[in-house]
Design goal:
The chain has 132 residues and is of the alpha/beta class. It has a single domain, classed as TTHA1528-like (hypothetical protein tt1805), CATH 3.40.1530.10. 35% of the residues lie in helices and 22% in strands. It contains four helices and six strands, in the order βαβββαβααβ. A six-stranded mixed beta sheet has the order 1-4-3-2-5-6. A hairpin with a 2-residue loop joins strand 3 and strand 4. The radius of gyration is 13 Å and the shape is globular. The protein starts with a strand and ends in an 8-residue tail after the last strand.
């Protein structure tokens, strides 16, 4: 079982990005899987995202702090994070669009169950989808 660390602050893109920065130093980027997690399937203009980062024993899951559903700052923070990861060598980008009730329940699930649920729902995604 892996430990999943929750990072950041709900609705606070800049602060969440800053909180994530020191954790990124622990990761091996070529083996990293990045999953943008939302409850807005087919509605990217209003989507709010959490970001799951999985690399070996390291698992980080941000609070809901990214995406256009949180305004310009949310869009820019998501684009900044994804571009930084892409430039660092990450090649596995995915998106998981969960039903709203499952999305809301992620924090109440045991970490291994939440991780399993998100990864099972994730499909490959082009990182350019998240450009600001």
């Amino acid at each position: 079982m892996r430990f999943m660390e929750i990072i950041g602050f709900k609705g606070m893109p800049k602060q969440t990005l800053e909180a994530l920065e020191p954790r990124l130093k622990k990761l091996h980027f070529p083996s990293l899987t990045v999953v943008a997690v939302t409850d807005h399937q087919g509605d990217r203009q209003n989507a709010r995202y959490r970001v799951l980062l999985v690399a070996g024993k390291h698992v980080f899951f941000t609070e809901e702090a990214f995406g256009p559903g949180l305004g310009r700052e949310g869009s820019e923070a998501l684009a900044t994070l994804i571009e930084r990861l892409r430039k660092a060598g990450v090649r596995r980008f995915k998106e998981a669009a969960l039903p709203p009730d499952v999305y809301e329940a992620l924090d109440e699930m045991p970490a291994d169950k939440a991780l399993e649920r998100v990864l099972a729902s994730a499909a490959l995604a082009d990182p350019k989808l998240y450009a600001a």
